[in-house]
Amino acid sequence: MHAVIKARVEDLDEQRRPITHVIETSYGRMLFNQMMPKGELPFYNGVVGKKNLRLIIGEVIKYCGIAESSAFLDRIKNLGYYMSYKAGLSFNLSDVIVPKEKEEIIADGFSQVEEIMDNFNFGIITDNPTSRKGSPYSTTSSPPTVPVRDSPIRHSRPPTPVT
């Protein structure tokens, strides 16, 4: 997955014209790029972490629209499940902890989104990221991912001698 290989790839140049060339990459990056919308985005030859994935998804939305973005996310999700299966990774559903405050977290997230959309619709904020810097409306105080991420840790069972 991580070994360096040389591969001929279909790519886009700086003017977004299709080209074919040989690059050094990895098998994992080849798999990831197979999930990308065909002919719409350049070959991504970097580490796909949380921050980079967010940027890639933004590019897919920008150039391909919401419908193709949804399909792209489904392909990535399915690739992740498939590769976890191939690696033999598993978990027990009884180990998945649903936080007691799940409904409250979701409702809070929706109200934050609604407030941001209202501010956008009233012209208080724009879709230009550079104009949001320093704005009191630029970020939420606590995005819903934080309580969702932290809640299972607070409610987790102590580890057993086997784990």
Description of the molecule:
This protein is mainly alpha-helical and 163 residues long. It has 5 helices and 2 strands; from the N terminus they run ββααααα. It has helices at residues 27-35, 50-87, 102-121, 129-132, 145-154, and strands spanning 4-12, 18-26. A two-stranded antiparallel sheet has the order 1-2. It starts with a strand and ends in a 9-residue tail after the last helix.
Number of helical stretches of at least 4 residues: 5
Which spans of ≥5 residues are poorly predicted at pLDDT below 50? none
Radius of gyration: 20 Å
Provide the helix percentage: 40-55%
Give the tally of β-strands: 2
Main β-sheet description: 2 strands, antiparallel
Sketch the topology as an H/E string, one letter per element.
Answer: EEHHHHH
Strand content: 5-15%
Please, what is the average pLDDT?
82
Structural class: mainly alpha
Broad shape: flat
Termini, distance in Å?
Answer: 27 Å
Oligomer: single chain
Strand order of the largest sheet: 1-2
Features:
163 residues; mainly alpha; two-stranded antiparallel sheet; 5 helices; 50% helix; flat
Q: Topology, please?
A:
Elements: E1 4-12, E2 18-26, H1 27-35, H2 50-87, H3 102-121, H4 129-132, H5 145-154
Antiparallel strand pairs: 1-2
Q: Could you write a compact summary of the structure shown?
A:
This protein is mostly helical and 163 residues long. The chain has 5 helices and 2 strands; from the N terminus they run E-E-H-H-H-H-H.
